Amino acid sequence: MATVTIRLFAGLRERAGTGRRELDVPDGTTAGAIWLLLDLGDEPAGIAYAVNRTYSDRSTVLADGDEVALIPPVSGGSDVPRIGVAITADPIDIAAAHARANDERAGAQAAFTGTVRNATNGKDVVRLEYEAYEEMAVEELTRIANQAAADHDLVAVEIVHRTGVVLPGDASVVIVSTSRHRPSAIAATAWIIEQLKVSVPIWKREVYLDGSVWVGQGS
After folding, report:
1. Would the N or C end of the chain have less CB density within 10 A of its end CB?
2. Domain range summary for the chain, segments of one domain joined by +
3. pLDDT band, very low/low/confident/very high, at 44 (cuts 50, 70, 90)
4. Residue pair 58/30 in contact by the 8 Å Cβ criterion
5. Other residues' Cβ atoms within 10 Å of the Cβ of residue 186
């Protein structure tokens, strides 16, 4: 068993009657399972999860002493885009990233999922090993997301990038752009992935059957 602290805000706090709750959860419990354990009825749309003050996938496994915040959509006016970025060592929950970028103002959602190839330059790839300067990477991803939202009139942007070991076939990065119209969502997603390769401090080691090599910034 693990003991975790749950933080609730705004309408969620009112619904629960408290802004903080301690829960004893079974080993292996994920962030996304917390809502059911709170027994508050149907989960509202658009909730994001943060573990220890970092936005996290619903699949993040909780440890004893973790703090889990359930974050409703942030206020700020109907024309303010919602921005979500995360660096995670856990497998990316692609469906959750899409769900977080859903918005009733939107008419289109364009997404890119980067996956690990099983071969490159004629060599079999065993795995990729991603390393990031995480604090700076999150700030740079946030800057890129905000720039994309401003330039392409987006209502929501979600960017999630892996660190650690990623196997062939697994997702290394997910980008979701949500807008009122299809062309802007498609253009924004294409622009974001190119910017990630230029300025975000994330590196990868390609591991082959007969050796490995470090590759510079970008996926």
Report:
1. N
2. 2-71, 82-215
3. confident
4. yes
5. 17
Cβ contact 143:151 at 8 Å: no
b/e per residue 30-56 (b: at least 16 CB within 10 A): bbbbbbeebeeeeeeebbbbbbeeebb
Residues 6+ apart with CB under 8 A from 14: none
Q: What kind of fold does domain 82-215 have according to CATH? A: Aldehyde Oxidoreductase; domain 3 (3.90.1170)
Counting other chains too, the contacts that 186-191 makes at CB distance below 8 Å and 24 or more residues apart are 186/108, 186/110, 187/152, 188/110, 188/148, 188/149, 188/151, 188/152, 188/154, 188/157, 189/110, 189/111, 189/112, 190/112, 191/148, 191/151, 191/152
pLDDT in tens, 55-93: 888 889 999 999 999 988 655 445 678 899 999 999 999
Question: What amino acid occupies position 35?
Answer: W
DSSP 3-state percent helix, strand, coil across the chain (nearest 5): 25, 40, 35
Q: How far apart (Å, rounded) are the C-alpha atoms in residues 193 and 145?
A: 10
Per CATH, 2-71 and 82-215 having the same topology is answered no
**CATH domain 2-71 topology:** Ubiquitin-like (UB roll) (3.10.20)
Burial of 176 (0-12, 13-18, 19+ CB in 10 A): buried
Token readout for 47 is: 């909730």
Q: In what order do the strands lie in the sheet with 2-8?
A: 20-25, 2-8, 67-71, 48-51, 54-56
